[in-house]
Protein 1
Amino acid sequence: MTSAFYSNSHIGTYEEGWHDKGFHRHPTAEITIVLEGRGLFEWPERKHIVETGHIIAVPPELSHRYASVSRVRFGVLHLAGYELEMKELLDRLVPLNGGVPRLFALSRLDKERFERLFREWLRVQASFQTYKHLNMKIWTEMLLLFLLEHLQTNLQAMTVTKAADYIREHLRENVLMADLAELAGMTVAGFRRLFEMTYDLSPKQYQQQCRFQEAKWLLSATGKDMQEIAEQIGFSRLHSFSQWFKEMAGMSPTAWRRSLQLRGAEPAQNNEFAGAKPPGSV
């Protein structure tokens, strides 16, 4: 493995029926995410069908190959020469000292946010950079941190991440447990149990946390008024929203926004960019 930090990233699209000509290996740690479609990942001991949102973490020098089951799009990141801090992050994803590949998964929403982040990194990588080494290091750490924050280690848990995505996309609505269980194809009791195992929260608690995070983001990053924010996260009455927010944050939403201004974090003006969330936000 080279001593200088090395990072190489790309997105590849392959038609149905494509396959690597044979097993290959490389000295880099590899992280591949399925951005679209279905594929096959294989190493000498095992084969795995991989789908949209699945992440394959391949140790250095491990023989492996890929094939497409349908038209498939892969995002690929190769890393070598990582420093100690990055190595500690990377080792949580990729077994750097040998071993078998690891498979993880992102929910649909988190996959979409990671793809936006990854594409922006590809744009930066292709542009002129005054501080190229620093750019590579910071962007790589950001991508690794995103994955560590959002990936699911239990692929069975992907059945409930569909429901979690639904909650995050429908904060205005009072979502029923029975509807979420049906979306996941499970009984209500089985869904509740797996959801709590995956998120350490009940579906209702998860919805409240998502609403709270969305409210804080709207208060800090937009110039929207309180009534508009309340309605956007599912409160028809401003008084109810204010009481709920105070219970969650220990102060009213108006006071919370004012406290940011006093610390110099002026809310953005309400313009065409104000509603654009950073990748990874809820």
Protein 2
Amino acid sequence: MYTYNAQNLIDETFVSESTDSLTYVNKIRSKNYYNLANNIDSIVTFFWQNGNWYKYKKDLYEYNGNNMITSKEVLSFNLATQLYIPSGRRQYARSNGTLLDSTYHQSYDQIALHYDTLNKYGFVHTNGLLIRSHAYTFNTGTNLWEPTQGVSVINYYYNYLPNATSNISAKSNDFFLYPNPCETYLHIQGDLVGAKFAIYSVDGKFIQSGIVGTNRQIFVQTLPEGNYFFRSEKDGKRIQEIFLKQ
């Protein structure tokens, strides 16, 4: 469930869970804070326990001149000291300041007090569309980057490939998700306004659902990073597409 601020931007997100689809229990709540460009500056997340909300973490975002994310830092909240502690960071490298080229996943060393890069991902695009991702893990024994076991390469396939991302809006009768990978919003190209949609993890777990609005976009910034299935149906036609949340 979402609440909105005066600028019609998502203010808070509430996540509940149920075992019988009748009774729901609070699980997670997140509060969004925005900068002057209406980009999310930070997200504070709370967890529900024993009838109370407790702070869990804070995500901090940085952007470039194109309003594209360049850094996301995760601060864990220490309930005992009531202080935030650096936990992890993700840095984004972009071609021409827009197209995602690679990401670097870093963990904070609480003893040495610095970030260590443990994983990195490289992305291959064709005409602005993600077609392949490569995952690497840093081997601290050899000090070399090695393909990540099990998920080193992922290929992406589409029902429709536009000549360029700039003409996405011109093909109103074709279904398409962009950008891919996505970070804050997942945009929908196609006549799905008013249609129900659902998002599932790659192992089939239900994540969220809703109705496609007139802006044809879905807020996904609070989703954990990973691959997801988008599923929808309208006029008897079922649609499924995979996307990567960064």
Protein 3
Amino acid sequence: MGMLVGFGFIGILVYWLLGCVDRPHLTDRTNRKSSIQYRKSNIVIPMSSPVILITGAASGIGRAFAASLHDQNYQLVLTDINETALNDAFNNGQSGAHLKSLDVTSSNSWKEAVTDTLSRFGRIDFLFNIAGVIMPGHVYETPLENIDLHFDVNVKGVLIGMRLVSEVMVSQGSGHIVNIASLAGIAPVPGISLYSASKFAVRGYSLATATELREKGVYVTVVCPGLVDTPMLDLQLNHDEAAITFSNGPALSSEHVAEQLNKVMQTRPLEVCIPNGTLPKMTNAFPRLNGWLKKIMEKRGRKAMAKLKQNGKTK
């Protein structure tokens, strides 16, 4: 009996380590066969022009994702705290999207954005919480204000947005919230510990609220990308503390992540890792691996950083 339990545990662990499975929520009352069929088919979204609210749309993943939706049949509300960059990116709204300044750390700014969206379109079908910040640094030398910065933007920004938009979606009886976390929210990453902690919070909150909202007809997906070629990558290049971030192969393109987000809109999985997140899950399951691998990963990361700088990737 003990052996059977042991093999069962090992099987579950291997299944988990192989990556975040792109599947419908586990709370869906479907068997495995119907789940596979569900993944392969397109879900019919109950609107001729679904309304999508995106934060952090002026650059990086947010900009690439918004651009990927441009020729599709969506009503886009694109937001960012940097209104100038947002207008420059989307031609002052002439692209057909509605552009809106949004400070995700402010509940009043969120309320205004949600109210404005509802007054224009009458509903919100998708919320993509993409806005985020990172400031590398070791715990013993990190400026105190960076603590507030990470948790105000990366965590409170998501929580406030979810609180207000989920209320709208519950009243509609449908909706889908997608939160961008990180592989650093699965495995703790030394050198970017504040960012890692904030993304752990985003992932945990997403998984918890997914269960609360599913019974109300609202889906929640948490997406955990690795290193992505965005302005956040450029910033980290100037910080040796962030070396481990660069240790896991080439950076993903924003366009690749945007492509995955388009798929997420159709399949509505609970969690997606890009790439599959096997190593982060191993260090999550066995925390001591972090200490054992630190020197090796830092060495690999520094080599990758030097190569990027050699190739002119410095800003």
Protein 4
Amino acid sequence: MGILPGRALGLHVSGETNFMRPRFWIEPALTSGLHLLPETEAHHARHVLRLAVGDPIEVFDGRGASAEALIAACDKKRVQIDVGTVSTTPEPATRLTIATAVPKGERMDWLVEKATELGVSRLIPLRTSRSSVDPRDSKLDRLRMQVIAACKQSRRNHLMELEPVVDFAEFLRSQTQPWFIAHPGGQPLAGVLCDHVPHPQPELVMAIGPEGGWTDEEITLAEAAQARRIALGSTILRVETAVLAVAAVVSALGYRSHQDIGGGGQSE
């Protein structure tokens, strides 16, 4: 693969991010200069988008850094890029962690995609008494690729962390500060946050149960571990709907005031 000097391509052009530019993930840490795209990203650039030398793109490293770049050189398997000035997006003011039972089939894919778009910082799959799904490591690896794809689409610069599956009892032992559990009889989430949670808050932790609901024992153990019950409306929600309801409320109330978007949000 021949290397073309990126400066000769006229790369470093100032101005706002162009939302029409294809967006690619690159392994951290992102710096100015020449880089190779990861294999899967290179395949997408060459064989799906049909990009060629000189085409403008945007890159991000999943840790807050992003930059405009140009395709500097390419062949069938590799794509070299010339990265311009790197900018950094700060972490949101509040980290939102959601621990959730795992829904069946492709609904977990949808949950991961939308939770990423809505700015969830960390997602913890839970194994509960009534869980019916226990994803294998290979499934989690595929879901992490879904996180990258969702960040590319939504222009988010920080990858959502997807943790390994943990037992609910282990999750409880890790909680050292007050947290929230969705369960009938709780107070509306928006009201609880507005009236009782200081703003900004370093981290909010929310737990969503399986479709069969939490057992009485799990609720008792959760409340003994400083959990507060919250309600997400008057109807019964699917697992993935409950996760998105929590993320949307937290975002709407401004807890994630440092915008984690490359140049601002935009819907498709």
